[in-house]
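User: Hi! I have a protein structure encoded as tokens and I'd like to know what sequence might fold into it. I'm fairly new to this, so please keep things simple.
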């Protein structure tokens, strides 16, 4: 019998699954007290999204309830999943994503203009605030200027601590309770006619959503649906921090992006997501006993997708730990080799419905950073792969143009 590797996953973080697989498409193990198989690479990605697997019960409750909330689409299957997925896709359309991007552009313009008034800023903190200020009004959520910073901190705290045992997890639990109560209050307010939600907004659609029987979702489930649109947008702040690090370390790409090279922006964004994925693994459960790429799994057994290892597979990504957006300037890559936000079909499967939001918000931030005059002082830009989600240790400290110019003149 295989030994349980749950503690090993918690201690090792992102490299765990690839180390266990050692280049194999699938390897048997034990996780969370269940028989499991870890899969990766294109074959593993395709198998992970096989309909013989389900998502319900695949995540331990302390993690799933904290990050996603009760009744989340991430833990649903079949008709129930399709119905809830349609709710998200009704909010996230090409037109609405473009509108969100325009809001983000305005917020970044305001933020970067204010940098000259401050000696230093932490890019990660700025991104959290900018994205919250953009996404809440876009989602139809009424939030005054005084409330936005608090909600931004709470959303970031949930994301920062969901997979980190200790004080960060406790802070995440407290933040999740507070943000959940706030979201339920918004839903109740809309349903009672006390809060106005613009037609077609995430808040309006969540408040009006029904289940398969046509029964209106509970306040908690509707609040979860709302937060599952808002929270991932704030999560893009982690990618923005790594983008700031990459722009500093690769000034030739900063110049291309600042010069208006749209292909360079798209390639840069994809490489940031490939090199620095948000989660190390994803999980599903077997509906019935079955063979998974040569490994026999019982009903209820876990199938774990190696996200980080797939995005760093040297068979598909030469020198996988090297930052090189040029990988994305040639022919389109195999979508099953790039899964920072999951794989499969976004409409019918479990691929993240907010992937277009991530791409848009990250592209907007990258352009704003490339064009904003700033310097990056000496700091620790390293990151810890044993911590999930990881982040440059400094948060990426920037000095505004006024301070940078003075430093240049003293040389």
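Assistant: Happy to help. Inverse folding works backwards from shape to sequence: for each of the 411 positions I chose a residue that suits the local structure. Here it is:
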């Amino acid at each position: 019998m295989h030994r349980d590797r749950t503690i090993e996953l918690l201690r090792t973080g992102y490299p765990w699954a690839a180390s266990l697989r050692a280049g194999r498409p699938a390897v048997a193990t034990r996780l969370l007290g269940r028989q499991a198989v870890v899969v990766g690479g294109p074959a593993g990605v395709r198998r992970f999204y096989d309909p013989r697997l389900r998502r319900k019960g695949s995540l331990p409750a302390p993690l799933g309830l904290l990050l996603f909330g009760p009744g989340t689409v991430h833990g649903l299957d079949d008709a129930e999943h399709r119905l809830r997925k349609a709710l998200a896709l009704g909010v996230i359309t090409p037109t609405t994503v473009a509108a969100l991007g325009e809001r983000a552009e305005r917020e970044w313009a305001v933020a970067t203009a204010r940098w000259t008034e401050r000696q230093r800023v932490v890019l990660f903190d700025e991104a959290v605030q900018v994205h919250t200020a953009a996404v809440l009004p876009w989602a139809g959520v009424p939030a005054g200027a005084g409330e936005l910073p608090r909600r931004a901190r709470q959303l970031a705290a949930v994301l920062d601590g969901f997979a980190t045992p200790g004080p960060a997890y406790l802070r995440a639990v407290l933040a999740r309770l507070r943000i959940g109560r706030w979201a339920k209050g918004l839903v109740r307010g809309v349903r009672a006619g006390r809060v106005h939600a613009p037609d077609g907004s995430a808040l309006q659609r969540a408040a009006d959503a029904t289940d398969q029987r046509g029964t209106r979702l509970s306040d908690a489930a509707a609040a979860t649906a709302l937060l599952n649109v808002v929270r991932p947008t704030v999560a893009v702040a982690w990618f923005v921090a790594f983008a700031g690090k990459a722009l500093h370390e690769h000034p030739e790409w900063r110049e291309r992006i600042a010069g208006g090279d749209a292909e360079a922006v798209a390639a840069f964004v994809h490489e940031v997501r490939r090199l620095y994925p948000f989660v190390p693994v994803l999980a599903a459960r077997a509906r019935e006993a079955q063979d998974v790429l040569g490994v026999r799994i019982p009903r209820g057994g876990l199938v774990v997708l190696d996200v980080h290892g797939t995005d760093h597979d040297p068979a598909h990504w030469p020198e996988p730990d090297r930052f090189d957006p040029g990988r994305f300037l040639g022919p389109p890559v195999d979508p099953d080799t790039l899964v920072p936000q999951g794989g499969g079909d976004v409409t019918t499967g479990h691929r993240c419905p907010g992937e277009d939001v991530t791409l848009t918000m990250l592209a907007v931030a990258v352009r704003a950073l490339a064009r904003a005059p700033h310097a990056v002082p000496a700091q620790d830009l390293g990151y810890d792969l044993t911590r999930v989600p990881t982040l440059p240790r400094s948060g990426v400290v920037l000095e505004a143009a006024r301070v940078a110019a003075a430093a240049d003149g003293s040389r």
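A useful reference point when you look it over: The chain has one domain: 6-409. Feel free to ask if any position seems puzzling.
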